[in-house]
Amino acid sequence: MNLDLGDASMNPEMDAVNLDELPDSIFDLLEKFNASHPINNETQYCLFKWKGECFILWLKYKRLNGTGDEGLEVRSFYKCIKDEDLSKFDDENWIDLSNNF
């Protein structure tokens, strides 16, 4: 989400996300999440905390363009500010990235 700010982002910088290596950074996040909360074709999102702030990475299981195979597509990744997103953090279904990077 950048609200038409061009190259700017509304998200704070995170050591866990290297914008120059974004696909690899997102894959690393998914691997870390999957290690404690297995991801499958029913998974809609992954929840992360970074220095006390909540982030959500939305996923969609679908037929991937160009390959014909099915897999997970990353839809978006952003800092949670709305109650509907923050309410997803009630359980222990998230991982804390603060100490991993």
Structural class: alpha+beta
Specify the number of helices: 2
Which strands sit side by side, in order, in the main sheet? 3-2-1-4
Global shape: globular
- Compute the number of strand runs: 4
| Distance linking N and C termini | 23 Å
Main sheet: strands, sense, barrel: 4 strands, mixed
Share of helical residues:
10-25%
Low-confidence stretches: none
Rg:
14 Å
Q: What is the H/E order?
A: HEEEHE
**What proportion strand?**
25-35%
Mean pLDDT: 86
Keyword list:
101 residues, alpha+beta, four-stranded mixed beta sheet
Please tell me about this protein's structure.
This protein has helices at about 20-35, 85, and strands spanning about 45-50, 55-65, 70-80, 95. The protein has about 100 residues and is α+β, with helices and mostly antiparallel strands. Strands 3-2-1-4 form a four-stranded mixed sheet, with helices on one face. The model has no long low-confidence stretch (mean pLDDT about 85).
Give the topology.
Layout lengths: L21 H15 L8 E6 L2 E11 L6 E10 L3 H4 L7 E3 L5
Parallel strand pairs: 1-4
Antiparallel strand pairs: 1-2, 2-3
